[in-house]
Amino acid sequence: MTEAVLLVGGKGTRLRPLTLNTPKPMVPAAGVPFIAHQLARARAAGVRHVVLATSYLAEVFEPYFGDGAAHGLRLTYVTEKEPLGTGGAIRSAADALTTGPAGPVLVFNGDILTGLDIRGLLHRHERAQADVTLHLTRVADPRAFGLVPTDADGRVLAFTEKPGRPEEIVTDQINAGAYVFRRDVIDTIPTGRPVSVERETFPGLLASGALLHGVVDASYWLDLGRPASFVQASADLVRGVVRSPAVPGEPGEHLLLPGAHAEPGARLTGGTVVGAGAYVAAGAEVDGSVVLDGARIEAGARIRASMIGQGARVGPRTALDGVVIGDHAEVGADNELCDGARIWCGTVIPDAAIRFSAA
């Protein structure tokens, strides 16, 4: 039985106010909590047991997913009392695994959307007889990521975490946030203190002579750390740019969840999701956006690449472009917000109060 650890303990501070009441992996993307997509893809690749390494708002995961049976999985929940970093979280979660010492254990970061061939990654790990195999991807600007150069055979040569100087940028290959560990390698991670797998575990293994293998994959990959990326990920899932068995509908320009209502004459495009109980009035235009449960979009509103929180209201003729509206906030009529503006949960903006907002 293939087992996996899913790291879902982060606070998601860059996604606030979306994550004030909801941990980042549970924020809906394409109609379901984001990690539902990761779990569904893992299940499709043959994984049967997943350990969720939780911390921030840990209490919300189990009521939604339960024991995992409804998703074709067995789920175990491990909660950190204090944040332990990526390495510490993996080590803590490993106590719930049953895989033997030489067996493979998949590890995923809970904020990455990817079209990675998971079975292929496992196969490459076994063929290389590696201690750890890393999913790598190439990006045009690698400065915000961990660089992982490899030789012609895929052997990892070094790690540079978020290079600060031009001479440190020796490759465009970055750590893409999915790994296969030999089970006994996880046991070498120290316990009882925070450990960064990127800054401590991997460089330490490399220095000790362990075989770390890199698999460069050119499939879809997106880091969901920023609101704009999260909204894009949802839209790409709805449109079928990247496929997930968890999307509750066929690929298309929009997705209406049960109980959602869009009046005739409302225009929904670009992979827009309208959540349960949400309402979009006639004449409103919503493009490539996420409208969460119970939200209300009034007549003539124009919304693009934005996220509208649960129970929020966008007034008539208001224009939003690249904006996050927190849960139960209200933006009155004839406002204009753009360029990364974020409206906190419960905030009320009067009619015609804002005409623009800089990032």
UniProtKB/TrEMBL annotation:
Q: Which residues form the Mannose-1-phosphate guanyltransferase C-terminal domain?
A: 255-333
Tell me what organism the protein belongs to.
Streptosporangium nondiastaticum
Q: Which CDD domains match?
A: NTP_transferase
Please report the name of this protein according to its UniProt entry.
Answer: GDP-mannose pyrophosphorylase
Q: Where is the Nucleotidyl transferase domain?
A: 4-237
Q: Which family does it belong to?
A: Belongs to the transferase hexapeptide repeat family.
Q: Which Gene3D superfamilies match?
A: Hexapeptide repeat proteins, Spore Coat Polysaccharide Biosynthesis Protein SpsA, Chain A
